[in-house]
Write a structure and sequence with these properties.
Blueprint: H1 21-32, E1 41-45, H2 52-63, E2 69-75, H3 87-109, E3 114-120, H4 125-135, E4 140-145, H5 156-165, E5 170-174, H6 184-187
Parallel strand pairs: 1-2, 1-4, 2-3, 4-5
Helix pairs in contact: 1-5, 4-5
Length: about 190
C-alpha cells in the first residue's frame, strides 16, 4: 500500500499552485471542480525532472488508497529542437527520456501503486494528454508547475484548452524549482522513505 508518510514533500496543503493574480483569473475554473479523492485513475503530466517526482508521489497518494492507477504522460522533443540535431543524438536522447520515464513509473510501482507510462512524440502535449485521458477513462489530470522556470513557463492558453476539453477535472500542482534528474542518489530528489 502507498504510504503518504514516505513523501513529506507531498502535502495536500502546499502542493497546489497559487498563481499570480493575472494568471489566476485565467486558471480560476481549474479550481472550481472539486477534486475526487476517490479517483481510481490519475493521469500525471511529467517533464522527467527530479521535481516531477513530487507530482508522481502526489498522484500515487491520491490513487494508492483507492487501489487506483497512475498514468504518467510525457512528450519528447518539445519545441521542435530535435529537427536540427544529428539522428544519433536524437536517438540517444529518446532512449534517455524513455529510461527516465520508466524510472518514474518504477518508483511509483515500488510504492505499491499500479502505474504505467506513455511517451509521445513531439507535438502539443495537451493533445496527447487528452487522448490518453479519454482512452483510459481518467478521473483526474495533474499538471505540475515549476514557478520561475525561465523559458519553460506554463502556457496558460494550453492549460485553458486542456481544462475545457478534458473529460475530468484538471488540477495544477506546484513543484520545486526545475532541476534535471540523473538518478535518485545523484539528484537528491527522493527523501528518506518510511
Amino acid at each position: 500500500m502507498f504510504c503518504p508518510q514516505a513523501f513529506p514533500q507531498v502535502g495536500l496543503a502546499d502542493s497546489f499552485y497559487c498563481a499570480p493574480s493575472h494568471v489566476a483569473r485565467s486558471l480560476l475554473h481549474l479550481s472550481r471542480a472539486p477534486m475526487n479523492t476517490m479517483a481510481s485513475t490519475i493521469l500525471a503530466v511529467t517533464d522527467l525532472t527530479s521535481a516531477s517526482y513530487q507530482l508522481v508521489g502526489f498522484a500515487g497518494f491520491i490513487a494508492g488508497p483507492t487501489g487506483g492507477e497512475v498514468i504518467l504522460v510525457s512528450t519528447y522533443g518539445a519545441g521542435g529542437s530535435r529537427v536540427s540535431e544529428p539522428p544519433d543524438q536524437v536517438e540517444a536522447k529518446l532512449r534517455q527520456e524513455g529510461q527516465l520515464l520508466e524510472s518514474q513509473r518504477q518508483w511509483c510501482a515500488d510504492r505499491g501503486v499500479r502505474c504505467r507510462a506513455e511517451l509521445y512524440e513531439e507535438g502539443l502535449w495537451p493533445d496527447y494528454v487528452l487522448q490518453s485521458a479519454e482512452r483510459s477513462s481518467v478521473d483526474l489530470i495533474l499538471v505540475g508547475f515549476q514557478p520561475l522556470a525561465g523559458a519553460d513557463r506554463l502556457d496558460t492558453d494550453q492549460i485553458n484548452r486542456l481544462a475545457k476539453a478534458a473529460p475530468c477535472p484538471v488540477s495544477m500542482v506546484r513543484l520545486p524549482p526545475l532541476s534535471a534528474f540523473y538518478g535518485p542518489a545523484a539528484s537528491g530528489a527522493l527523501t528518506q522513505e518510511a
